[in-house]
Structures are given as structure tokens and as C-alpha cells.
Amino acid sequence: MSDIADHRFEYARDSLELADLDPDPLRQFHDWLMDAAEAGHLEPNATTLATAGADGVPSARIVLLRGIDERGFAWYTNRTSPKGQDLAANPRAALVFYWERLERQVRVSGAVSVIPEDESAAYFAGRPRKSQLAAWASPQSQPLDSRVELVAATERYAILHPEEVPLPPFWGGYRLLPERIEFWQGRRSRMHDRFVYLRADGGREARPGSAPGEAQGEALGGPSTIGRRSAGGAMWRIVRLAP
Ligand SMILES: Cc1cc2nc3c(=O)[nH]c(=O)nc-3n(C[C@H](O)[C@H](O)[C@H](O)COP(=O)(O)O)c2cc1C
Questions:
Q1: Catalytic residue numbers?
Q2: CA of 131 to the centre of ligand 1 (A)
Q3: Structure pTM?
């Protein structure tokens, strides 16, 4: 690619219609995640996590999705990290998935809660031993003098925990309960298909735009809106968005 300003790609693989969408956005997401795995993405569960702390400064990084069910989208990390500090100050976040081979994007946003310790411990127990030791040894995102320092720290923790490695008190999961989930399918000539599911039963975002807190309890209906009840008991409306 000699000049990114001239780089063009026609999305021509698929389309998305209201009739294609599952009434439950979480099932719809799961279907797309499975499609992404089948299409050969090496880490289809990789997602960009955006947070903002008390200062309002946005920050984004990739994490791996480690659970998806009616409770929401789960990932694990060091809670003293910058993202952990952001979430402690402002427990709201957005996730973005991009599956290039399918020309699909999914955007999710909502409130974030800390996963209970017993659940984090069960997840941590299933990780490879070396990853467990690295979690103990790494003060994530703090300055590090050298790699040697990090390796030495993991060796110290290996001696300290010769058998089972316990869950570090500063490590664990978060779960985002979606209020808004948008599915984007690339089409030719930037005429992309976009549908957003908006939580219509008390979520903070009830408008297609992302301004929170407005239009709560808005009547279901309208040309591009279909009221549906998901498996988790949540009420969602689906709106087509201009690309
Ligand atoms: C493909 C990929 C997967 C990653 N998965 C995780 C993860 O699940 N948890 C995590 O804490 N960091 C993960 N990271 C590292 C983060 O992107 C980031 O560097 C780190 O968490 C520090 O972020 P922070 O300083 O914003 O807190 C991953 C990075 C990549 C590229």
C-alpha cells in the first residue's frame, strides 16, 4: 500500500436485513462470533475495550472476551491497571469487535460490574500455570526496568506457589451489561447495513444516538422499530441506522 489515502476495499461479502436478526441480541452476537471463528479469525474474541476515568479522558485497548451470556460480556485483567482504575471511577465501557474476513463490526456499550471473586477464581484456576504466575508478577502498565526483572519476579512467585497458584487479590473479571448493541455489515460503495438493539426497559441508552439517559420508556413502534423480548427477559427495540 503506497498511499493509504488511495487504499480502497469494496465490501461485497454479505448483507444484513431486519429479518436476519435474532430477537435476542446476545444470541445474534454469539452467532456472529461463531461465524468469525469458522471464517478463520485466530482470535475472534479479541475486542477493543474503551473506558474513561474521572478525568473523562478516553482510553482504549484490546482484551479477550472470556464469557458471553444474558449477564453480559466478560473479560479478565489486572484491576490496578489503568483500565481497572478507569472502571473503578466510571463503571461504564464500550467494546468494539471487528471481523475483517466477514466485513462485520459489533459495537456494545453499557454498565460494567466486577465479577464475583469465586467466579474469577474459577476462571483463574483454569489458566496455564505460567500465565497465573505472570499475573502475580506483573504490575500491569507500570514502568519496568527490564524483562529480566519480570522473569525474576515470576520465578519468585513459582517458588512461593509450588503447586496451585491462588487468585491474586488485584486480578479478576469485569462484565458489561449491554444497553446498546450494534451490528454492522459492510456493503458496496459505503452503503453498509447497520442495526442497533436498544434496551427499552430502563437501560440508560434508549436512542439510536449514544446520548444516555433520554427517551426512557419510549413507546415501542415506528417504521424501523420492532419491540421484542429477549431470552434474558430484557425488552429491546431494533433500529436501522444510516451508514
Ligand atoms: C490480542 C490481545 C489480547 C489481549 N488480551 C488482554 C486481556 O484479556 N486482558 C488484559 O488485561 N490485557 C490484554 N491485552 C493487553 C491490553 O491490550 C493492554 O496492553 C493491557 O491490558 C494494559 O492496558 P491498560 O494500561 O489500558 O490497563 C491484550 C492485547 C492484545 C493485543
A1: 190
A2: 13
A3: 0.91
